[in-house]
């Protein structure tokens, strides 16, 4: 099936980035969210980002016009015309399984259903559908327009054809696909989230201030961002969900989320998207 129309579910941090990159790569793009405020914010974020990219010469006027033409919708009605669906909704297993059931009912037969999940089993997500051969993980990195990697995860039943089609689409989007096995957190978050969690433990135990912890990792380990800054960029709720999945599905206490992380999520200090996390963004 030739891919023309990409339908993205979730208009948050990742969904709006994926819709933007799909549009500037020549696909017709639709972005759906259950929250109207998320759709409004996504539209504004894409307009801001593509204006900046145009000024810097990183996209041309035609690509900007394609991004301006993204459709923002509150339901799955337009999915019947889509050739690829990418889910980037909240990292919560119950939410994702329900969405995949609905996607399976709404998308045409043969259409690939991809998930941007950071940690949830693709095999489990695929089992919520009647097309496990057409379900795959397409794990974009944040911020999507700038980051090269897409971690591609096959579920137990994902077909070779699906994996090849998705790898080709990643390349059309200017990304580098890297395959990982279907294991909690895949490669990226199996390694990254325990490091972020350890930084939160260090903060909680008074080993250093947020600034000191981040400076040590930037200046001493050559990381472009410190772990607490990165946690704020990812979203503390997303990090917490991933650690919970790692702890539960790998059955190891070493992945238990730091208490401070849980407290900050409870307080709504979710990082950059909330204006406040380990740092203030007011
Ligand atoms: N934030 C990151 O850095 C990052 C990186 C890679 C992957 N991911 C993954 O991407 C996904 C989205 O994360 P995010 O950071 O964009 O989250 P986010 O909180 O910024 O956005 C999630 C959006 O999903 C919407 N949503 C919830 N239920 C929905 C439903 N039933 N239908 C449609 N939309 C629904 C919410 O309204 C919200 O706007 C998660 O699976 C996350 O693990 C996140």
List keywords for this structure.
Rossmann fold; 8-stranded mixed sheet; alpha/beta; N-(1-d-carboxylethyl)-l-norvaline Dehydrogenase, domain 2; 13% strand
CATH architecture of the largest domain: 3-Layer(aba) Sandwich
Structure summary, number of beta strands: 8
User: Which descriptor suits the 3D outline?
Assistant: globular
CATH superfamily of the largest domain: NAD(P)-binding Rossmann-like Domain
What CATH calls the topology of the largest domain is Rossmann fold
| Distinct bound molecules | nicotinamide-adenine-dinucleotide
The secondary-structure class comes to alpha/beta
The averaged pLDDT comes out at: 97
**Helices and strands, in N-to-C order?**
EHEHHEEHEHEEHEHHHHH
Number of domains: 2
Give the low-confidence spans.
none
Beta content: 5-15%
CATH level 1 name of the largest domain:
Alpha Beta
Structural summary, described in words:
The protein has 282 residues and is an alpha/beta fold. The protein folds into two domains: 176 residues, Rossmann fold, CATH 3.40.50.720; 86 residues, Orthogonal Bundle (N-(1-d-carboxylethyl)-l-norvaline Dehydrogenase, domain 2), CATH 1.10.1040.50. The protein is 47% helix and 13% strand. The chain has eleven helices and eight strands. An eight-stranded mixed beta sheet has the order 3-2-1-4-5-6-7-8, sandwiched between helices. It is globular, with a radius of gyration of 19 Å. The model has no long low-confidence stretch (mean pLDDT 97). The site of nicotinamide-adenine-dinucleotide (NAD) has 28 residues, from helix 1, helix 4 and strand 6.
